[in-house]
Amino acid sequence: MTNIKFKLNGKDVDLNLDPSMRFLDVLRNHFGLTGPKEGCGEGECGACAVLLDGHIVHSCCLPLANVEGKEIVTIEGFTKTKRYQALADAILEEGGSQCGICTPGMMIAAESLLNQNPKPSEDEIRIGLSGNLCRCTGYNMIVKAVKTASKKGDGLW
User: What residue spans define the domains of the chain?
Assistant: First the structure.
């Protein structure tokens, strides 16, 4: 057991756990945060995506030790922002969600992309979302939603 300190969704956290634990398990089992999901367990699908110091990471492949001193934002933390609402509205408007399994990870990926590039091209959006798999929408509506959010959320990112 090791003492690990980090910031989670704006709050300071101090845990005494096995540093080799997967961060996804810590989020779900110790904090009850169910937005990040177990999809593939290999960092391929993006369902477990979170922001680590503003950059997207797959929490299923992230050892707890790697978050020491870092700032983590999950979809639950992101929902408290105006940027989330702009993106959620665009996803609804463009029909960018069906079953919802991929939606939290897609939104985290979109937030990471828009933070780095507030006016991405369609190709840049596709690249930014490429680490996330969707089995329902075929991606076009999700890409369109991110484009819509970047336009309607002008000044938020």
Answer: 2-75, 81-153
Question: What is the sign of the dihedral through the CA atoms of 76, 80, 84 and 85?
Answer: positive
Class of domain 81-153: mainly alpha
Give tens-digit pLDDT for 37-51: 999 999 999 999 999
Q: What Å distances lie between residue 41 and 32, 37, 107, CA to CA?
A: 18, 9, 19
Cα–Cα distance, 97 to 104 (Å, whole number): 10
Tokens encoding 28? 């779900």
User: Domain 2-75 adopts which CATH fold?
Assistant: Ubiquitin-like (UB roll) (3.10.20)
Cα 57 to chain center, whole Å?
8
pLDDT digits (tens, 9 = 90+) for 61-93: 999 999 999 999 999 999 999 999 999 999 999
Contact (Cβ atoms closer than 8 angstroms) between residue 24 and residue 43: no
Which pair of structure tokens corresponds to residue 150?
A: 């970047």
Spatial contact of 37 and 27, defined as CB atoms under 8 Å apart? no
The pTM score is 0.93
Residue 137 has pLDDT above 80, yes or no: no
